[in-house]
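Suppose a colleague, Dr. K., hands you the sequence of a protein chain of 206 amino acids and asks what its three-dimensional shape might be. Before reaching for any lab equipment, you can write down a predicted structure in token form. Begin with the sequence itself:
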Amino acid sequence: MSQKTNEAWLSELRGPESAKALSDLHALLLRGMGYALRRYDVTEQDVEDFVQEAQLKILDNLDRFRGESRFTTWAHKIGIRVALTELRRRRWRDVSLQDLESPFEDEGDFTPAILTHPAPSPEDQVTQQTLMALIFKLIQESLTDRQREAITAAVIHGMPLDELARKMNTKRNALYKLIYDARQRLKREVMDQGLSPEDILAVFES
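The predicted structure, expressed as tokens, is then:
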């Protein structure tokens, strides 16, 4: 089954008797995703649900397959993306936005991992902490409540936007706009402090 050519997969899935090809695809995804997700806390039913959703996405995107890899590799990538997206959503499902306000109240270091050097010097570490304190102060004082919630959850904590939109009772596009406006306001505030966003990034990349 897995030795079919890319052309054969596409032809059979689009053909009038696609049921056999869909069954083959289901078995292939079930086996591959079950192995790939073995280190996650998932049940057999979870994997089956992921496979079902992945099949729908694969069928919807057949026209986008360019043949730059094996069809089975492409299909597995879609399947894993579906599974990991759902697992991330579950992780944040019971987290409230109020729980994410802690960085503003925590006197310890809360520099996001993406901004930190793996082995900063003592001087760099002090500079990073000072700048993060400034950023958190600007977030707290310069943004609206909803902008602060969105930036804290999405940018600092990495909450998926779909889940954040649900918690904030808003549409994804509106959330994009909210975060964009918050970023622009923070950029202006940073520049008013005599710094540029590039200056801040340079410190964390040094």
